[in-house]
Design goal:
This protein is an alpha/beta fold. The chain has ten helices and eight strands. An eight-stranded mixed sheet has the order 1-2-3-4-5-6-7-8. Helix 7 links the parallel strand 6 and strand 7. Helix 7 crosses helix 9. The longest helix has 17 residues. The chain is globular, with a radius of gyration of 20 Å.
């Protein structure tokens, strides 16, 4: 395992790591979270006349210590520091972009640190109380965490913020060969225990699922993505984000250069839509599924016409939570890549 860890690290491109004493990047956007029949706005009406509720979301990309695991497909390490996060650094970062208090709710806050929020090396426990104060104005706080870092710190934080805590965890895939190839340091039992722990503490769960992780034959990869989504739904998670594997982390690029792996293409996104119909079925009212459109322009394949149409099609799927096959779009395109 250590040999694989060192190999993964040795393949990383040389970059300058960010300082934990710098202002974090912030992203302000809206996120869909439920279907409703109340007075729909024209921009959110679905095909059946209902509408999608949206919430304003602030996402902060915090800078702290790197995750101790070395997932082969992960590119988040480049946004972390090599050393343990200094005490006081995370509150300092929050102070650069967030007010300390407010009389009105400002919807949701995502504290993404490209690592594990409840790992003391990444977020010192001495800082949790100060961080909780910054979270006071928000109705929901979403943090990233590895399933093996679920302990009393998570419970304390959930009890000391005013809003609802949601923990985002990477399930990635349930395909056995791919799980081994990813070197994630997690079993499905670890994931199940983490979800059960969150549910016992009334903490919501968000899950990341990969489209075409390394270790799965291309011909069956979208089927395994759909099976993984179904697995997460069966465990009652609130939100599932499907993320296509990206290049740029070193390990993936080496596999691509050697001809052992190909980045997922738009044709696989189309196949995914078909698979969702077969494997996922009815989406529970308490759950939400989305295809992550971040980095959409980097997904290879397609032509300008169908790329734009497919993106709009996926956005409609998000709004309606009805994952219709590509053919429903009405675009006649011969692109197969």
């Amino acid at each position: 395992m250590n040999a694989l860890k060192h190999q993964i690290e040795s393949l990383r491109p040389a970059i300058e790591r960010p300082s934990p004493w710098s202002a974090p990047k912030a992203l302000y956007s809206s996120e869909p979270f439920g279907l409703s029949r109340r007075s729909p706005s024209p921009s959110s009406i679905d095909a059946e006349g209902g509408h999608c509720d949206e919430v304003e979301t602030t996402t902060l990309f915090l800078i702290g210590a790197e995750c101790p695991f070395r997932c082969s497909m992960c590119d988040l390490w480049q946004y972390t520091s090599r050393e343990k996060t200094p005490v006081g650094a995370i509150p300092f970062q929050l102070s650069q972009v967030l007010p300390r208090s407010s009389s009105s709710k400002r919807q949701w806050l995502k504290l993404y640190n490209a690592s594990n929020f409840f790992d003391d090396r990444s977020v010192p426990k001495e800082d949790l109380a100060a961080i909780a104060k910054f979270c006071a104005p928000y109705e929901r706080v979403i943090v990233e965490n590895h399933p093996r870092f679920c302990d009393d710190r998570m419970q304390w934080f959930a009890q000391n913020i005013e809003g609802q805590l949601e923990v985002a965890m990477g399930l990635e895939t349930i395909e056995p060969n791919a799980m081994q190839a990813m070197n994630k340091g997690m079993t499905l039992n670890d994931f199940d225990r983490a979800v059960q722990c969150c549910q016992r503490l009334q903490i919501d769960v968000r899950v990341f699922v990969l489209l075409h992780p390394p270790g799965i034959e291309r011909e069956v990869s979208t089927e395994w993505t759909c099976r993984t989504v179904a697995y997460a739904l069966d465990r009652g998670v609130r939100h599932i984000s499907i993320i296509p594997v990206r290049s740029g982390n070193g390990w993936i690029d080496t596999l691509v250069d050697a001809g052992h792996y190909q980045i997922p293409t738009l044709s696989m996104v189309r196949d995914l839509l078909h698979g969702m119909q077969e494997h996922v079925g009815q989406i529970a009212n308490a759950s939400w599924i989305e295809f992550d459109l971040w980095g959409w322009d980097q997904i290879p394949g397609g032509c300008p016409r169908c790329r734009a149409a497919l993106k709009e099609h996926l956005m409609r799927c998000h709004r309606t939570q009805s994952f219709l096959p590509w053919e429903e779009n009405g675009i006649d395109c011969e692109c197969t890549v």
